[in-house]
Amino acid sequence: MPYLLTTIVFLPLAAVVICAMLPKDLAGAAKWVAATFMAIDVVLVGWLVAAFDIKGGIQAVVDVPWVPQIAVRYHLGVDGISLSMLALSALLGLIAVVASWKVEKSAGTYFAMLMLLQVGMNGVFVALDLVLFYVFWELVLVPMYFLIAMWGGERRQYASLKFFLYTLAGSVFMLVGIIALYLTTGTFDVLQLAGPEASRAIAAVPGLAGWVFLAFFLGFAVKVPIWPLHTWLPDAHVEAPTAASVLLAGIMLKMGAYGFIRIALPVLPGAARASAPWIAALAVISIVYGAAVAFAQKDVKKLIAYSSVSHMGFVMLGIASGTAAGLDGAVAVMFSHGLVTGLLFLMVGMVYDRTHTRQIADLSGLSSKVPAIGGIFAFAAFASLGLPGLSGFVGEFLSLLGSWQSTLVPHWMTVVAAVGVLLAAAYMLWMVQRVILGEPSEAVSRIRDITPREVVYVLPLIVLIVVVGVYWGSLLRFVDPAVQGIVTILARVA
Amino acid sequence: MSWLIAIPLLPALAFVLLAPLPRATRNALRWVPSVAMAGSLVGAIAAFATVLQSGAGEKPVYQASVVLATIGGKPLDVGIQLDAVAAIMLMVITVVGMCVQVYSLGYMHRDERVGWYFAVLSLFSAAMLALVVASDFLLLYMCWEVMGLCSYLLIGFWHEQETPRMASIKAFLTTRVGDVGFVIGLAIMYATVGSFGFEAVLHGFAWTPALATAVSLCLLFGAMGKSAQVPLHVWLPDAMAGPTPASALIHAATMVAAGVYLVARALPLFEVSQVALTVTLVVGTATALLGGLLACVQHDIKKVLAYSTISQLGYMFMALGTGSAVAGLFHLMTHAFFKSLLFLGAGVIIHAVETQDMREMGGLRKLMPWTTAAFTAGALALAGVFPFSGFWSKDEILVSLWNGGHYVVFALALFAAFLTAFYMTRLWFRVFGGPAQKADASEGHGDMIVPMVFLGAITLVVGFSSPYFATLLGEKGGWPDLAVALGSSAIAASGIVAGWWVFGKKAVDTEALKARFPQFYGIFANKFYFDRTYEFVFVESYRRLSDALWSFDAAVIDGAVNGFGRAWAAVAGGSWTFDARVIDGAVNGLGTGVRWIGARVRRLQVGRVQTYQRLVMAAVIVLVLWIALKGA
Question: What single DSSP character describes residue B72?
């Protein structure tokens, strides 16, 4: 299956071309095109998952020269971590298409953008060459910018621009880091950079590792986002159309965390260890700060956006721990957050489509008026606050275990992070209390319950949330072997 | 023995079946959980018989585990086991659970969401049953949290009303405060032992006292949340806003006892750390007294029972604090039966008189003879009167306190026993004594009476199992110490007499006492100011902190970002300056605040292309510099 990864990554590009070329009166066909291509993509990813050898390291590798003059290669491959992210990306991509079924404004362009975004997201998680990685990384920005700027809410211009510039500014630092690595080692290849030869070359230049790590940190931290680089997120989320919110929270935030796990940790393990306490401190601040600010929100979408800041803090805490439990936890939070926050945004989208408001004050009594929407919404809220048996618990719990176990993270930080679990329950239940429970409000009193199409796109998420939450191994059997490799590299420099 | 898993699985399946159905279908299928529960009851009896046959003591007669995941290549197991403690707990849960299910079919049948009620009750039963057969702290914790969810859903069952809604969130969050401790305890356990299994953690590891203290105290904190121990007791009285049969099962018999169960399980670890035992004893004593005192001043019949539950759970913690799992678990068992009985009785009474306020009741003994009889049996058990079950179990706790040399605590426990008899007598005379206030109140239906009579019968006989209970758990059993038994009976009698004197004979004017000592009464009326303090110190300050951080986020952090963006745009290029001046000038001329904000946005946009170029240029410059430096 030499072309499998290439096909998975670039299949949506075919949809981009078709959607973009559709004549105006056929624009309604764009969603069918996108859905078909994404469905094939999901099937192919399913095939990849089924054929994946859990103990087999990096698989489905393609490695050919791309720009031979400067040793840039077209190098793709997946291990368990990338595979889980790729699967999430494809699944949420398909769901985003189905959830956008009612988009009529410039539908051709809209679905073309959605599919272009998909190329970038898929690509980031399978690229093993830093230049390729960077290209995919930046590719994501453009369609997301247009999705927010053209199909967004009232303040879409401000939000989209802020999103674009902020993440771009971050990735420029990353570019500098990539170039510095290349100039030191002569390669852009992620696997080679993590090898002993490249490590020696990096270590030979005093101070280099620290600076390069900082550069990568800035690039990734903006994307995660880590406090205090998070303020683009609430704006982008609130203004983005539902499908874009789902992908933004579900996939794009993971790109930053994935960057840490795939590049920063294995390539610069010494610097990663040295900065671990600081990253953990920022992670813990993100957890508590995100939760506290979420508690104050009056707009449901903004509340979920700040909850993302809090949850991604658990990802960073796990990464900072450098332990197997912590890293397994980080990936599990990434995966689960994609499912759960995706579901939350879809539910908010459903409510907004019907009531035209996202203000908590205007919403009340969903469970009485529309029990299915209210019930699924509440389900997502409980998954988000880390109820055992649902996916949210797995990662947060492992992340806490790992950070306590770690010699790099002070114990008091783990304690504060554990309090974050309590705070998560506070903002989520307070939202449930006001939006889902109670007597139906004016805005809610005349709406209808979930439609079959909506059931279709939330059902896979619900099923996965339960499956991963009940049987952790369903996800971690893929992730853990890959994590062990990273832990080994980190242990080498201890 | 692989059928053991079916005991929790049956109710879980009933939930899975009912939960996704539309309301009407779910309501029609409300009997499904009862059938599942009957299956679990049969399983529990079989499990109990197996344990009896083997005469096993502490060792499990059955164990099975699955690998939940591998972490760093090491398997993380969760498993189930059957030992004497588990078998007894299974019996308690399924018997009380079955009674509550049958009772609920009558009590809840008119509710429009009755199907959902039974679904959640079923999920709760599944979680509680799984909790007691869990062979490790991880599975135990997971079930623990699921029970918390069910408790939340049932307390807030009538969520259209404000009170249940607020009570449910308060219950969930207060217990989660305890769970923060639990989770940290698990983290220490994992980092130290590398496993959550009971066997590995409790018997297979040489704990240092310091670490054992840390883990024990963390677990204890979790248990205090779930079992409503001071200072985390505040949620339980409020939880009475839920349907009464749910209170009987969850907030009296089973879930709130899970904390006791947890500490009893972890007792070997507590014993390594004497500190943790002492703390358990102190917490239990404080809780038993506080609950007893506050139960004396409640007017809501369910709140009397709720504070009584708090007090009795404190009793169980006292037993555990002396290191006696047997006494704690025995009281857990007897309490589960008689307290669920009292709650079921309260439910019938509330249905009949349509109020929870005892001042509007009275004289029900003539109108509701069955309920009166059953309730009285429960009340006598709670008061510790021979031969009812509470007498035996309270006695064992007193003996364990005396034998442990905790004489002060022993005296306080006697005082708490006096209070118990006193407030139950007060309740009895208020509800059943005196002239009838509501003449049309009538006895409950058969499906509600039968479970109560059944529980009443258990209450009458189960105490005699006292010596066998200890033997079953692998300890030396025997009949109670006569001196202690006589002493505690005298105390119970004096409490009843005092209660009769004040509330039956009305020899003391309680209203006059209230008026005479208003400050003193105020302390009681304000529940010792726990709720007020928490409201002020935690809830209100968190709300303020949250608002302050939100303002900080918008003004300072985001302000810095916007400021940076503007500054960058300002230096971003010569050609831009002209445009900006024209646009800015025009906009500033219009001058309103809203437009000014719009202009800020627009300014950033104007700089877009240039900004992008600048950023890329910066990267290129660094690149060139690097090559130059490296070359040099």
Answer: T
